[in-house]
Design a protein that fits this description.
The protein is built from eight helices and no strands. By secondary structure, it is mostly helical. The protein has one domain: Up-down Bundle (Four Helix Bundle (Hemerythrin (Met), subunit A)), CATH 1.20.120. Helix 1 packs across helix 5 and helix 4 runs antiparallel to helix 5.
């Protein structure tokens, strides 16, 4: 998080928005998913599955059992983090971690706003679980093309949720202020 704050400060000075940061992630994460599929180990698959199992347990405990948005957000963040860390490229892993930290702050704020409108939350959690399961399956199969395409779509769909309550396009400054 320290690196994210430093990069956040640089982005803040340039008037960068959180959408801009997320767009950068949408360029790099799908490529990292492809690289992971091409280089994955059994441990990579096991670690991704562990995160998916944790997320399933959170959902199965019931929506009301989620104590705060950070519980879901941190577990979901870990899945993204594993894709970046295990892709086999250290530079992309560090870059991805910094950008993900910045976006994670926004995700937690967005989820907190959405909790008041619980109507679509269980459905959204279910979609995320299915998407993560498909991602693991494609990585396990070593299908780089398919996982890159799928992960890009996953991130595009997630963006529609994260930015639905962000009409003014939050500047990075508002996240770390």
């Amino acid at each position: 998080m320290v690196a994210a704050r430093h990069v956040g400060l640089l982005l803040q000075l340039q008037g960068t928005t959180i959408r801009d940061v997320y767009e950068a992630r949408m360029v790099t994460e799908p490529v990292c998913a492809r690289m992971l599929a091409e280089r994955r180990t059994e441990q990579d698959l096991a670690d991704l599955q562990t995160v998916l199992d944790r997320l399933r347990a959170i959902v199965e405990a019931g929506f009301e059992a989620i104590p705060d948005v950070s519980t879901w957000s941190s577990a979901s963040y870990r899945f993204h983090e594993l894709i970046m860390q295990r892709c086999g490229n250290k530079t992309l892993a560090v870059q991805g971690a910094v950008l993900a930290d910045i976006v994670d702050t926004h995700v937690q704020q967005s989820l907190a706003k959405e909790l008041g409108r619980k109507g679509n939350m269980p459905e959204r959690f279910g979609k995320t679980l299915r998407s993560f399961a498909k991602t693991i399956k494609l990585i396990e199969a070593g299908d780089g093309d398919a996982v890159e395409k799928h992960w890009r779509k996953h991130m595009e769909v997630a963006a529609t949720y994260f930015f639905s309550s962000d009409a003014e396009n939050t500047p990075v400054i508002d996240l770390f202020g």
